[in-house]
Amino acid sequence: MNFTETDKKIIRALQSDFPICSEPYKVIAKDIGISQEELLQRLNNMKREGILRKMGAVLRHVEVGFKANALVVWVVPPERMDEVAAKMCAHSEITHCYDRNTAPDWPYNFYTMIHMDSKESCVEFARELSEETGIDQYELQFTEREWKKTSMQYFME
Amino acid sequence: MELTTFDKQLLNILQGGVQFVPKPYEAMAEQLGVSEERVISRLQELKEKGFIRKLGAFFNSDKLGYNGTLVAAKIEPGHVAEVAAKINEYPEITHNYQRSCGYGLWFTVITNSDDRRKQILSEIRSLPGVISLLDLYSQKKYKINVQFKLK
């Protein structure tokens, strides 16, 4: 994968805060040194190619009422993984869903991040997911403390 | 501060994405039936009050030539805080959480080379108090969609 210096400059400019003003793209384009039209065109391309997942907001979940989150780790038979993933991903309470490799003392191969209003709702929701999918080996892990939560800064080297 | 119905509608739109048009806030204002000024001033307030973690671009790290992994670390009791502080020093580590299981710290590592990832993991493995690490890489990312539907 090759990115030109201009590509990298654009990506660097986009990863800082998006301006809240009438013409935000004009501000960003000026910083980069390209026209607004070119910037909008490139954003459309990056979105289409899947490089840009989204240009938008991620909220502070606790502040907006989703006070509890849990990482639920599951043991899913490999041949059922795609089907189980499709069922789980249909729920908006699940923000992340990945497979992951296992280790001798760590049998869990499937991960979902769930966000609810309380710990009790997380437990109940996981139980419902288990019932819906028939996957009964799972564990909920609650976050005791966030030591760090930032966004990756790309092409900074 | 309590979110009003208008705030919730506005934040729901903003989570879905900002349009690639010269005046994106005007487009949101039209959707909501208010003025562009109202949208802009309210968003500035909501950001200031801490409801928005980040407004900006979210990239697919794989497509930029980076690879991410999740690491679980088993730590000796009493060493968690100092190990967490050391882990936080790496810019490649963006998330670092303490969780309630045998593996006390869980962190993500995003690098654009395998060598760099291995180097970071071996440095962390040799920190005092670290018993073992699990490198839990993913082959299939089924869903990444951080949107909280506000009602």
What structural category characterises the helix and strand content of chain A? alpha+beta
| Helix-strand category of chain B | alpha+beta
Tell me the helix content of chain B.
Answer: 25-40%
Mean pLDDT of chain B: 95
Please indicate the count of domains of chain B: 2
How far apart are the termini of chain B? 16 Å
The arrangement of helices and strands of chain A along the chain is: HHHEEHEEHE
Neighbour order of strands in the largest sheet of chain A: 3-4-2-5
Q: What is the fold-level CATH name, i.e. the topology of the largest domain in chain B?
A: Alpha-Beta Plaits
Q: State the helix count of chain B.
A: 5
Assess the beta-strand content of chain B as a share of residues: 25-35%
Shape type of chain A? elongated
How far apart the termini of chain A lie comes to: 17 Å
